[in-house]
Amino acid sequence: MKILVAVKRVIDYNVQIRVKEDGTGVVTDNVKMSTNPPDDNAIEEAVKIKEAGKATEVVAVTVGEEKAQETVRKALAVGADRGIHVKVDGILEPLAVSKILQKIVDKEQPDLVFMGKQAIDDDCNQTGQMLSALLNWPQATFASKINVKDNKLEVTREIDEGLETIEINVPAIVTCDLRLNEPRYASLPNIMKAKKKPIEEIAASDLGVDVSPRLEQLKVEEPPKRKAGIKVANVAELVQKLKNEAKVI
Amino acid sequence: MAVLLIAEHNNKELRPFTLNAATAASQIDSDVHAVIIGQNSADAAKQLSELPVVKKVLSVEGAHYENFTAENFAPVIVKLAENYSHIVCSANTFGKNLMPRIAAHLDTSQVSDIIKVISQDTFLRPIYAGNAFATIKSNDAKKCVTIRPTSFDPCESTGGSATIEKVDPSEEFSNTKFIKREEIKSDRPELGTARIVVSGGRGMQSGDNFKLITEIADKLGAAIGASRAAVDAGYISNDHQVGQTGKVVVPDLYIAVGISGAIQHLAGMKESKVIVAINKDGEAPIFSVADYGLEADLFEALPQFMEELNKLNTIQK
């Protein structure tokens, strides 16, 4: 079984976001960037499946500008076998990314495609489902447990009401939740080894996909700020405030 | 052209967020039709027809719709979409799973998780865990929009009498099979719609200690929430998680206990009307959004809190 894992470069989850004064977006210059956290879970799961002898190859793919390649290199350092970097400048909408990934799937013919359930920058939560629609493959979204059985996967999904288990036939798409596993750290020797692993570069323009934006971002602004609260001295004061001042209990 | 609302239900009755999504749909266009796809879902369809904002109900029945599989739902809606300008549903796990599958088939760029309808083609949505708000204009002919339920009031649930029209089911998608659903049943209010939420974090130190929270929640008629750290540590099940990748809640009162307040958690609760933080670390970021902060050891504060509540003559429910 061959697993393709899609990874995205985003502003690190620990960075306090600053909105640009001109309202065109958020500040990304000199800001720490990392792999989108649930994409790390996707890589980890694929590598674990390979280590368990149930997959033969793990290929990491990213779609983005020059520096997005760092995320593929990181995936290689934690066990992916090779990488693909689809180069494109500017921000792509999930629909465009899923069309590009569809072309990569056509070329690579993987049995499974894994990715994070949502990117923590645009919070869209779309790409996996869209790719699955374009390929007419089954989709197992928000996966917190994956059990590989021959040509089927049993996947536990986190839903609002609790947990749901489905069985999907490969080829299939899985979008990963943060609770799926604990991503490993890359060891120094593995980081060195990863530098020798191949990354194929493909220009998005060579794939014949229309990636032109359908959405216009008219403005990005700071959310309204909460006004500063107070510290109370003890529990009795807290309960009195909630009862008599805020009137919520 | 009218707006098509996708109803969320459990085959017996509508799920509550359908009413919030109906409000959002009616703000896009007053002509709202609603589609309900399920198995033996006639009662839920009737309920849907009684929402005054819904002008027509389309009911699709089939055994393969019993478990709400997106692969089965999408083709039906894609076919219906021909007659509609917008497809709308809630941005909860139901809608998040389903809508992008529809959007891709329609070759439409979806607008996810909107918190405000500015016009028929322009919407406000949070990005970066709510640390920025983006105004987005969609230039697609058909628009697929998911709405953040807590940002829209539920619509009236009675008084309407829309016609219910049967629509033919589409073929079954055979490569996805439903196995089981483990729903956590509780007598407490639903987390997403509760008036009061009491949440615990890593500071709770164990699942057992959550009984300190349960007790207070029962007294207040509150729902129980949790930070991702508490769910990851196994103190409580995933359906309680509040935050960027969990649920968004906007209660009148949110009590955060032993939660440091990572931006990912704040994303799920900082729109609450009144926020209380109880934490022994006075520097914890949760205090920056709290109306009332109590710097204290939760293992002393929670029993005292219970005592003080017991002293009150009346408690709003």
Structure description:
The complex is a heterodimer of chains A (249) and B (317). Chain A contains six helices and 13 strands. By secondary structure, chain A is an alpha/beta fold. In chain A, strands 9-8-7-10-6-1-4-5-11 form a nine-stranded mixed β-sheet, with helices on both faces. A two-stranded antiparallel ribbon of chain A has the order 2-3. With 317 residues, chain B is α/β, with parallel strands linked by helices. Chain B has two domains: 2-167, HUPs (Rossmann fold), CATH 3.40.50; 196-311, 3-Layer(aba) Sandwich (Rossmann fold). Chain B has eight helices and 16 strands. Chain B has helices at residues 17-28, 42-49, 70-80, 93-105, 211-220, 228-232, 263-266, 298-311; strands at 2-6, 32-38, 54-61, 84-90, 111-114, 116-117, 122-127, 132-138, 143-147, 163-167, 176-183, 196-200, 223-226, 253-257, 274-279, 292-295. The longest helix of chain B is centred in the last third of the chain and has 14 residues, at 298-311. The radius of gyration of chain B is 21 Å and the shape is elongated. Chains A and B meet through helix 3, helix 4, strand 7, strand 8 and strand 9 of A and helix 3, helix 4, strand 5, strand 7 and strand 8 of B.
